[in-house]
Amino acid sequence: MTTHGDPDPREPVLVARVLGEPLLVGHPDASYPAGRPGRLLTALLLARGRSLTQQRLVDDVWGEELPADPRAALHTTVARLRRALGPRGGDLDRVGTGYRLARDHLLVDAELFLEEARPTPGEAPAQALVRCEGALARWRGPAWAGHADDLARGEASRLDAARLEVREQRAAALLDLGRTADAIGELRVLVAEEPLRERAVGLLMTGWHRAGDVGAALEVWTDHRERLADELGLDPSPALVELHRSVLQRRPEEESPNGGGPAGPPAPAPGRPALLGREAALGTLTQMLDLHRCVTLVGTGGVGKTSLAATAVSGRDHWWVDLARVTDPALVVPTAADALGVDLHPGTPVEASIAARLAALDGVVVVDNCEHLIAAAADLVDRLLRAGPRVRVLATSRERLALDEERVLPLPPLQLPAPGTADAGAPSVALFLERARAVAPDLEPDDAVLATVADLVRRLDGLPLAIELAAGRVGSVSLDDLRDRIVDRADLLRTTSPRASARQRALASTIAWSYELLDAEEQRAFRWLSRCAGSFDLATAEALLGPDAIDLVPALAERSLLVRPATSGPGAYRMLETLRSYAASLLDADEQEALALAHARWLAGLATDVGRGLLGPEESRWTHRMDQAAADLPVALGWAIEHGEAALAAEMLAGAHRWAYFRLRGDLLGRAHDALALGPAGRTAGVHLCASAWHWMRGEHREGREQGELALAAARTAHELAAARDALSDNALAEGDLDASRRHSREGLEVATAAGEWTDAAAAACALVLATTYAGDDAAPMLEEAHALAHRGGSRSWIAFMHYAEGEVHADRDPQRALAALATAHRVADEVDNRLVAGVAVTAETALLARAGPLDRTTVERCCAAVEHWRRSGSERLFLTCLRNLVPLLDRLGAHAALVELVAATEGQQAYGAEADRLGVALDRAAAALDPDRMAAARSAGSVRTLDAAATAVVAALRASVTPAP
User: Does domain 14-112 have CATH number 3.30.70.100?
Assistant: First the structure.
């Protein structure tokens, strides 16, 4: 793939041209899809090869006007987009439960432009001019036309800013080459368009001065100074003041090479006030990321570490791991896995899955807010660096991570005005004025106002967050009162947190002042809502606060103490972590105990409701409800276990059992053993079921069977009895004990049917279908019963599982019907984000292609793609299963030596039933085709191979066994 110049239309890539109107995609310059397929394509292009979840894509494509069935509508839109992309439609990949455009086959003209926009070290003016002209030639009009005010707003703004910078670079190169008249002509246009861009103004002043027209240079200065004062209330920068002085004194030899503008990175564009005064820090951070693999941005809370980190990586491929809401060190690695888009699979440690994912990544992983989990965060960063040879890590923390590879960049507060002065150009003052004008547009920065603001930002130690919070009160409170109130409450934090630094005390004083403006009930609500680790709705708030929550929660949102919900759909509120930490610090011991108990009782009740809801036709709604509480469940469960609340812990685990099972949440299921250790109250059927599922995921089937037997003994309801039988059937099936699996399924089916528990009956019927099929018997009649029961129960997960079972039933007798059933299973499972069923459907599809797919390159490449997918996933168990599924394809292709090598390399995979028969037949055919020496050599070669080496060998053998396409 080319990286410079125009894309070669002969290359097998998807080319997108977004720098102009109309947008174009494909070869030749095809029209960009209209409507929702176009919005979907925009979202995927902006992701640059990263996988986006289905929920994210639904939000991007439909916004607030959601369709009746969002997941089905998304699947339809994906199909339309694939058709619109023509030959490149296959580049739209499904990854887990989301989608992405394959990075290796994607070329976007905006990326080429940004690459060319970056100056090279030691670049001569003539080289700079050629580079800039090539970069600017890529533009045909506005970036992301039609999407710049919506999905692509951020990138369009970034591209426009970069285009302005390249125009300035070109003008500077023209000046350095002595083409002064050309430079002046372009700079006059640029300054007319962007009169506040300091570098352009400095370059134009320099151009006029070099042309001998000092009057014109001074006129440019005067216009800029007056406009800056009128629109922003600021004075020109010291660098531009010095350039003005050199023009007055006729000293062209002292002009800055870039025309008097700042020597560092360009000043932030208007609308980015939070980065005022951070130009030097941004330049240093960017250089450190280029030179070092691990950089930690260190500073006190509220100093702007996150904002600076986000700006530093905005032009790079990056993944964001936010630890702000994580309170348990054990959840740091799962949080990182989710942020990195890692697919977790049964029986595979999450660390292995992350390692496999990192091996393929090239970019920056940002680990944000490390300070409260410093040891766990340091361990995570160390893992990232060791597993990802091309990965760099940017961490933000209040203290360093103490790693050998770490380089630390301290971030101080914003620059303050000098003592006794009221400099409007000081970044801290400029930030306050910018934010204050947003709520009080009539604020006039006269000398008195500037003096008060200067005093106020000094009291706040220049912390951006503190400044923004204080500025937000202007208009409802006078500046003098604001300053005095903050100063008067400086001792408040010293009392509540004697170990806090002076800057932290100033920040908390700002929050404390906002807190004291609330009445007693609002204060209590603010404190108690700090218990919510993630987003919450009014129902959650009512569980903690009582019926007054309907008034109290909106009141806090109005005062910017809660992040407001969207205007439509169920309202989800959130408390910023800084505010949440402060609110939690105000809770006394009695409040903490009462609040934690109320929180756990609410989670227990919710989990119970979810557990029942997942068994019916409203599974999607209940799944979403549990997803919203996913951050709170580990907190409440951990508290219940630590405080001996066995009954509450058992209720939470029992209710969340199916949700955690379908989501492969081993971290939650594994806590069942902690609950069991609490005594009889924790030894319920539901807790034993969670423990059984946890062992099943780890491949520990004997232990899983033991927990299933304990669940059966503890069962008190038909649902628990049927679920226990299902757990026993699952473990027996995994062990190859098909008779036991069928016996448990039949008994579970009888219990569930008699009690009218139709979803449990469907689960038992599906398990019975699988065991019967694997035993080589006819399961078609049972499949009809499973179909009827699944639809009668209405659970989308078990309808999906029924279609998976249907695919297994027809795999040998009607492969096309089987493939269609497996595709349906995958689609329906995606509707409720059932990762377990979606995963087994993909595995079964791979096996079927190997046994019955056409013997052509398409089949081979699809199977090879599956191998690469599971190789990257980090799931050794499913990776091994995928490899063994290829034995029939090697047999059909006559690759006998490769077949023997693969079987020898995967001897740890147990085979039974039809699979064992197929394996035996294939080995017999290989023995007949190979002489004894070659057979022995193949066995020897395979037996010493790792799974990764075996995968490489089998992919090579498959591709060599089919005739290359012309």
Answer: no
